[in-house]
Amino acid sequence: MAEKEKTFEEITTHLQTQGFVYPGSEIYGGLANSWDYGPLGALLKNHVKDLWLRHFVRGIEYNVQIDPAIIMNPKVWEATGHVANFHDPLVDCKYCHARYRADQIIHQQKPDLDVDGMTQDQLNTIMQSGEIVCPSCGHKEFTPIRQFQMMFKTFIGVTEDKQSEVYLRPETAQGIFINFKNVLRTTRRKLPIGICDIGKSFRNEITPGNFTFRTREFEQMEIEFFFKPGEDDKWFAFYKDNCKAFVEKLGLKDANVRFRDHEPAELAFYSKATTDIEYLFPTIGWGELMGIACRGDYDLGRHMKYSSQDLTYLDPEDNTRYIPHVVEPSFGLDRLMLALCCDAYDVEELTTKDGKKDSRVVMHFAPELAPYTIAVMPLSNKLNDKAKAVYDSLHEDFDAIFDTTGSIGKRYRREDAIGTPLCITYDFDSDNDGAVTVRERDSMTQERVKISELSNYIHSFLGKNRVK
Length: 468
Fold this sequence. Notes:
Layout: E1 2-3, H1 8-18, E2 21-23, E3 35-37, H2 39-57, E4 63-65, H3 75-80, H4 82-85, E5 87-92, E6 99-101, H5 102-109, H6 120-127, E7 146-149, E8 153-155, E9 165-167, H7 173-177, H8 180-187, E10 193-202, E11 217-227, H9 232-250, E12 257-261, E13 274-281, E14 285-296, H10 298-307, E15 313-314, E16 321-322, E17 325-332, H11 333-344, E18 345-351, E19 357-363, E20 374-378, H12 384-394, E21 400-402, H13 408-418, E22 422-426, H14 430-433, E23 435-440, E24 446-450, H15 454-464
Parallel strand pairs: 4-10, 20-21, 20-22
Antiparallel strand pairs: 1-18, 2-3, 5-6, 5-7, 8-9, 10-11, 11-17, 12-13, 13-14, 14-17, 15-16, 18-19, 22-23, 23-24
Helix pairs in contact: 2-9, 2-11
């Protein structure tokens, strides 16, 4: 079998036609870069979340999970600097009026320049130099840079005025910081402690794109890990190792993953170190999936100042009081899913037993992440009821689908295309031997398994194929 080269467009088309992802508001003409997860995407998302919870919450003794509100007191965002500083440098082409982020368009056309450390004046100078070309029309004249507020603004109550103005959160992290004392008090824990959260965030991106890689509504999985000052290096290394282990459990190919340490010029002024984990997407190149950052005591310190509340920690071991330091592993769930799908997608060229050429589309998901673990199929419609009884005995324990449409070969191909690891076929011999044919997705090998032993067989299969 040979692997065919794949493109980003090919993969995203497959995800839409199979039911992983749908265009948002499609019957009304859609909404720019808005996407809905279909049945397969929702299952895949739940499995990634479950793996993350198992690895980082249940798997690390220091960690607990909370679920803070999306809408918070707007003073939260004043304290963090989001109201004053959470802006993008916006420019418009003077001819076609296409809109761009100045730093992104400069980076695309001058990749050797380090735009991350540039001021607005420096970016503006480059945009007005005549060296940057509008990708839409080819002209070289742009409006001066203006700052664009990235937080979505809304109102609470019946009036729309400054007093009722609130924001949709641009990140989940601050819901953790403002609950730090609550979690310590109610869990009666000592430092170190990790507070974890999975939830939606919202950013009014100027140029969202690349399918679900950059959207205005997205889901994050974040941890704020609090510890005694001076232990930064220890816990930063701890979470780098744990994030690496998590990526290995996802099953992403080593060649498509890299750790990138931020250069000093890239670091926020309060950050001692930051490492991004990036994935090599087909066609579009490297993109960030997650980051691990040393944030010091910046966030708790800011909230202490703006709330006038004491967020220090009294260490019972030496009776000292201090503001805890923080390491933050932050994961983009939508980006992780997109990377999983790109990594799993293959078009395999096959040679049949009689020497003919054939091909199949297959999604090589890690078995525990695949939307459906099993597909149960009757060989003939005459066997539907008996096959359905097998399905009924399994679907409460495993994500399963009952498939009766088309020839058995077409059904195998259909399950390959959505990544189902095991297909279970009830045939005309099943009445006599009390067994079914189990076909494995990747190798396409088949074996007979007793119906009474199916559940144990599936559990054993998942265990053998799980990255420890």
